[in-house]
# Entry
Amino acid sequence: LRWRHQHRGLLKAAQQFPGPKTLPGLGNAMMFMCKPEEMVKQIKNLFVNYGDIVRFWLGPDLNIVVACPDELKVLLTNSKMSVKGPQYKYMADLIGRGLLSGSGPEWSKHRKIAKPNFGKRAIESYTPVFNDEVSLLLEELRRKPHDQQFNIYRDIVNTTSYSVCRTLMGLTKEQTMNIPGLQEIIEESPSNYKVIFDRMTKWYLQIDPVFWLTSQYRLQKRFSKLITIFGKDIVKHRREHLKNITEDFKLEHMEMEEDGMLSVVDRFILSGELDQPTMEKEIFTVFTASQESTAKTASYLLLMMAYHPDCQEKLYNEIKSILGDSDRDVTDDDLKRMPYMEMVLKEVARLFPIGAILQRTVAEDIAIRSGYLPAGSSMSFSVFHLHRDPRFWDNPDAFDPERFNPENTERRHQNAYIPFSLGPMNCLGRSFATKLVKTICGRILREFEVTSQSSYEDLRLAIYISVVAIGGFPVILKKRNSTK
Ligand code: HEM
# Structure
């Protein structure tokens, strides 16, 4: 009763929006007590049954789900919306309250420090490392038994992880190979994302003493130790490296707006703004935000090519016309001349967004349609559902890169496509990810034809923070005759 009295403003404001019936104490939390695969359907039903601005309660948290793209754009670009939602606190155990799950002065300071490494000039400087890592990947793929199906994500995620360590972290190849626990971190990351998502969606796991009794907690604790050691090792290497760099060089490069001569870790150290534990968490944040997302996107792209041989043929012809028959490095110029690759990647990011459901805290009342989002509530949005909303996409579940040809791009709803989110909290690594995915896929598809024993209709998806392919990424690679 006291809670109802204290929050009467929020309760009253909630009445502006339609939504499902609530249970005392739990609100609508039971809605998410389902298999992850069913969650996609549950959320869709909300929009079908209640329209495109819907309220639901996760215990005491009022969530307003906005599914109309124009309103979403206005909201996401509003500075009153630059606070991450309450569900991000379950990420904070592993990654702290900084770049990815934080808000306010700490988030903005860290984002500003890291930003030069994601500018155009910095991204250009990563070309040799990306290509070197993809060459190693190709060697690995050439060794795969002929005609055998395998989960290509497992190979690609090593490439993306090593690429991140050798660019954003500033490590050498040898240092990367010797980071303690790196392989375990790569392998255990997916189950740890699932723990975070389970806590976000299962009300009983949000009660700390209950969570502490679970095997998920033990898994998270073990993982937390691994990432601390990982962060410490990287900081140690970079502190040693920085001892040999002149002060003038450091000053000059710290001031540049776009620059890859210092790594993100160097910038964290030189800024003097982060203490050691915060730095370790931010290092893991950068690592985890980048290696899994790019590996998954590249794997989805290759799987879609296996499922859609006509698209693969078109893409192969484009790649071959630019790279020819030799296994040479892919440059920025090459990538600029691959418009079909761009269309395919956009379609992949439409169907399988990495940030599937996102949330912001409403810091002050914000007008929306004839009402307002009340301060203290959360605004949630499902990028997954927006990208498959039949109001904005014909035959939305079909894979069709032609949606993104210049003519159709002109015609489609501009705000209904937000794979990297929007506004001040949009993705920092967009150009990094796009280039790495294209380099990986361009060189694999030039050398191999990709097929699969399964088909697009067999693909089963679930949402655990990002969109997960339940059966993995099963492909068969066949070397093309013309490649050397
Ligand atoms: C295809 C790959 C990627 C996709 C689709 C993607 C997508 C996203 C999305 C949707 C967000 C918004 C999250 C939110 O609002 O809660 C985000 C945030 C972020 N991403 Fe990415 N991302 C990708 C790759 C990367 C890479 C390579 C990095 C490199 C470090 C990165 C770093 C970040 C960071 C730091 C944020 C937090 C931004 C902030 O809140 O200020 N991402 N990303």
